[in-house]
Design a protein that fits this description.
The protein is 47% helix and 15% strand. It is built from ten helices and eight strands. The protein has helices at 2-11, 22-34, 49-60, 74-82, 95-102, 114-123, 139-146, 162-170, 180-183, 192-206, and strands at residues 13-17, 40-43, 66-69, 87-89, 107-111, 127-130, 154-156, 176-178. Strands 7-6-5-4-3-2-1-8 form an eight-stranded parallel sheet. The protein is globular, with a radius of gyration of 15 Å.
Length: 207
């Protein structure tokens, strides 16, 4: 968990891959890591996400940070861990958080309200995913949450483009989570070259 938080604070970027094409999703994971984005989440709501996780883990070895996202239930957490995920990301609080913490996995837990923030800390979450960040005020909402919780590791997710990423980080976010503004259509079979160009831009902003 300490290594995860060190990596999160250093890299300040988590890529979110949710694709309709398992082969393209795997290529996307590999392209992101090769482009300097070492924290990658594969959403369980994507096609054959567990298969993508297994292939990526086999290719990357045991030490790479490879997350499973959209973990809702204890079964989701167990299947993700069995597929090779060593990080769990959730859209909110619930059994998925508890099961992952029980397995000793770092958890980026979805929160929205101050009540969620307190509950996530009590549940043992490693970092706090503000989701959906853009829908509730964007950077202004992060600034408001940091008032009562100035030292907590917030990671805004949802509608985070490069400009918003820079603003969130300037306001004290420990990192940002980025899906479509970074991945685009690559996980659906789109242009991996364009993905690499976007990755370079986000790495420059977050580095």
């Amino acid at each position: 968990m300490v290594d995860f938080m060190q990596e999160l604070r250093t890299r300040r970027l988590v890529a979110i891959v949710r694709g309709t094409d398992a082969e393209a999703s795997f290529r996307t994971v590999m392209a992101l890591i090769e482009s300097g984005v070492p924290l990658v989440e594969v959403s369980l709501s994507g096609h054959d996400a567990l298969g993508v996780l297994r292939r990526a883990r086999a290719e990357l070895g045991p030490d790479a940070w490879l997350g499973a996202g959209t973990v809702l239930t204890a079964d989701d957490a167990a299947r993700a861990a069995d597929a090779g995920a060593n990080l769990v990301v959730t859209p909110g609080l619930g059994p998925g958080v508890d099961a992952a913490v029980g397995r000793g996995l770092p958890v980026l837990a979805g929160v929205l309200t101050p009540t969620d923030v307190i509950a996530a800390g009590a549940a043992g979450a490693s970092a706090l995913k503000i989701f959906p960040a853009s829908a509730v005020g964007g950077p202004a909402y992060l600034k408001a949450l940091r008032g009562p919780f100035p030292g907590l590791p917030f990671v805004p997710v949802g509608g985070v483009d490069a400009a918003a990423a820079a603003e969130y980080l300037d306001l004290g976010a420990v990192a940002v989570g980025v899906g479509s503004p970074l991945v685009g259509d690559a996980a659906d079979g789109g242009d991996v070259g364009a993905l690499r160009a976007r990755a370079a831009r986000f790495v420059a902003v977050c580095g």
